[in-house]
Write a structure and sequence with these properties.
mainly alpha; 2 domains; 8 helices; globular
C-alpha cells in the first residue's frame, strides 16, 4: 500500500508534534506517496520501525492511502468513530515487508556507502542555495540519516537528478 502524509500529518511534522518519536519522524518523512509501505519499512528496519509504528501513524490520522482509497476491510465504518475508517484495517493490509538486505542483497551500511558520495555531489552542486542541505548530508552518519534527508534532496535537485541517489538508497 502506498501512503501519503495527511494535512494533519504535515502539520504535526512541521510543529514537531509530540505524538511522533524521533525514529517514527524519520520514517514518516519517507511517506511521499511514491514508495510502498513495504519499501519504507525495509529502509527503516535498522531503526526498528515496524508495521505497528505505521499503523499508529494511520490511526492518529497522520498518514492516509494515496487517493484516499480505503482498504476493503474498512468499507463499513462505525458511526462516531474518531479515527478515519481505514485506520482500522489490519496490519496485513500494509503489504509484505522486505528485509533490509532483500532485493539487491545490500546491507544498510553498503547502501549508505554507495549513496553518500552521490548525495554530497548533488547537494554540493546546488551552490549557496544548497549549503545547509549539503552540511546536513555531510553530517549524515548512517543510512537512516541519508534516507531521512532524501525527500529534501529530491525537492532541491529534481526527480531526474535524484534518480541516481534513489537507486543507491532504496533499490
Amino acid at each position: 500500500m502506498v501512503l501519503v502524509k495527511t494535512p494533519a500529518g504535515q502539520e504535526a511534522l512541521k510543529d514537531r508534534h509530540g505524538s511522533l518519536s524521533s525514529r517514527q519522524r524519520s520514517a514518516f518523512i519517507l511517506f511521499d506517496g511514491k514508495r510502498t509501505t513495504g519499501e519504507i519499512l525495509a529502509a527503516t528496519a535498522a531503526m526498528g520501525i515496524t508495521q505497528d509504528d505505521v499503523q499508529a501513524m494511520i490511526a492518529q490520522g497522520l498518514l492516509a492511502p494515496v487517493g484516499g482509497q480505503m482498504p476493503a476491510a474498512a468499507a463499513n465504518p462505525v458511526a462516531g468513530q474518531a479515527a478515519p475508517a481505514w485506520a482500522e484495517a489490519p496490519a496485513t493490509d500494509l503489504g509484505t515487508v522486505a528485509s533490509p538486505v532483500e532485493g539487491s542483497g545490500r546491507s544498510p551500511m553498503e547502501r549508505y556507502k554507495a549513496a553518500y558520495p552521490i548525495a554530497t555531489e548533488l547537494t554540493a552542486g546546488l551552490g549557496l542555495r544548497g549549503f545547509r542541505l549539503n552540511l546536513a548530508v555531510e553530517g549524515a552518519g548512517s543510512f537512516e540519516d541519508l534516507a531521512a534527508l532524501a525527500p529534501k534532496i529530491r525537492e532541491a535537485v529534481g526527480d531526474a537528478k535524484f534518480e541516481r541517489l534513489d537507486k543507491a538508497l532504496f533499490d
